[in-house]
Design brief:
alpha+beta; Pnp Oxidase, Chain A; 7-stranded antiparallel sheet; 3 helices; 7 strands
Length: about 130
């Protein structure tokens, strides 16, 4: 199964010291060996991607547990806004439907409780996968 056809993927980004941090994310196909998802500009993922484009992706479940029989894929990632973010948002809404509204609501409630509101889905991430042989 292609990575873009998966419901979730584990995204591993790297701290400045090189420590890996894995997070489960939704995934949509962007064509040309690219997949994408959206995130908040205030998220740890976005902050880590601001200093290195190196990532590792792998199919996973909603908790980020990688799927048996799959292999990690070294790739590069780029934070995007504007038309590219709009394209990712449209594809995510088409693939995940009402779950997008639920996660937005849960994010808003969590921000109120934690007194740390961060924007919801204001950055896109485009991941360029290696060309398949």
């Amino acid at each position: 199964m292609e990575l873009a056809e998966e419901k979730y993927m584990s995204l591993t980004t790297f701290r400045k010291a090189g420590t890996p941090v894995a997070s489960p994310v939704w995934v949509v196909d962007l064509g040309d060996n690219k997949v994408g998802f959206y995130t908040s500009s205030g998220s740890g993922k976005a902050k880590r991607l601001a200093h290195t484009s190196k990532v590792i992706v792998q199919p996973s479940d909603s908790r980020g547990r990688v799927k048996d029989g799959t292999k990690p894929i070294a790739a590069t990632a780029e934070l995007v806004t504007g038309d590219q973010l709009a394209q990712i948002t449209t594809k995510i809404k088409a693939k995940y439907g009402y779950f997008t509204k639920i996660t937005k609501l849960l994010g808003k409630i969590g921000g109120i409780i934690k007194r740390n509101r961060i924007p919801y889905a204001d950055r896109g991430v485009v991941i360029t996968l290696p060309a398949s042989d």
